[in-house]
Amino acid sequence: MAKIGIIGAGSWGIALSVLLHNNGHAVTVWSALENEIEMLNREHEQKEKLPGVKLPDDMCFTSDLQQAMEKKDILVLAVPSTFTRSTAHQMKAHAVSGQMIVNVAKGIEEATLMTLSQVIEDEIPQADVAVLSGPSHAEEVGRGIPTTIVVGARTKKTAEYIQNVFMSDVFRVYISPDVLGIELGAALKNVVALAAGIADGLGYGDNTKAALITRGIAEIARLGIAMGGKFETFCGLSGIGDLIVTCASMHSRNRRAGILIGQGKTMKEAMDEVNMVVEGVFSAKAAMGLAKKYEIELPIIEQVNEVLFQNKSAAVAVKDLMIRDKKIEIISDEGWD
């Protein structure tokens, strides 16, 4: 049995707390919000963000960060990406050398263009930081619906330990050394999911969505490989796997926000209606910063930025994508004379 601290009591943190408790581990859940902790202690349910998933009586809930971190074998950092640095900064004082921190948020820090594991390592250099990602909506994981995910870590020993802790008959865990590729796939798929939602909101069909998913993963892989990620990662669970589920499911807050934008709402109106953090909005600008830095074309992500931040019509953005200069899908020295 491992002792685990879940740092963040949103839908994903709570879903993972249920999974890990069912795996036989001792789980403590932390939130900075006193009213959230009071609700969890009183109701044993995250009624606002994961209704219907009952939490066991022996699960501990606290707003004391030291209590949540002290003598824990693993810390699961499950706060929204925009709060990753500030939370990690608070955690530094209580983290011991070599303590495992598994980041499960998805995003890129706009100001620095760092991935979230890089942000955590910047704030807590003594930690052993890993990442967990894949097609895994909290609404389904909390209910025990089967899925598969991937853990990325700096060492195989750390990856295998985390794999053993999280693995169950409904949560299959693969491991990988490509931490960077996993994080880029996880963050950038949210931006493409906004585009898929916008297409849905405009009333377009399955052909359009399939095209966005296919060309979207091409953009993600093109940038990811330029930054040092592995091609196979973008064909895997945190690449095409997470992209498919995020573009197709109504559990996806990014897709839901995109639908609203496609129907004519502003970015702010869409985010207010979804009433949860829409990570793709925060990753979109960072993605363009990375594209400029590495001189990579990201036409879908570029159009999403123009719709979000430059008041461009969603219908015009789709048209501009369709009438771009003609391209070759596969560049090869073989096949044509």
Largest sheet descriptor: 8 strands, mixed
Q: What integer is the average pLDDT?
A: 95
**Alpha carbon gyration radius:** 20 Å
Assembly state? single chain
Order of helices and strands: EHEHEHEHEHEHEHEHHHHHHHHH
Q: Total helix count?
A: 16
Give the percentage of residues in beta strands.
Answer: 5-15%
The total of beta strands comes to 8
Q: Record the strand order, biggest sheet.
A: 3-2-1-4-5-6-7-8
Helix content: 40-55%
How far the N terminus sits from the C terminus, by CA atoms, comes to 63 Å
Unreliable residue stretches: none
Structure description:
With 337 residues, the protein is of the alpha/beta class. 51% of the residues lie in helices and 12% in strands. The protein is built from 16 helices and 8 strands. It has helices at residues 11-22, 34-43, 65-69, 84-91, 116-123, 138-141, 156-166, 179-201, 206-227, 231-234, 237-248, 253-262, 267-274, 279-294, 299-309, 314-322; strands at 3-7, 26-30, 60-62, 74-77, 100-103, 128-133, 147-152, 171-176. Strands 3-2-1-4-5-6-7-8 form an 8-stranded mixed β-sheet, with helices on both faces. Strand 1, helix 1 (11-22) and strand 2 (26-30) form a beta-alpha-beta unit. Helix 8 (179-201) packs parallel to helix 12. The protein is globular and about 65 Å long. The termini are far apart. The mean pLDDT is 95.
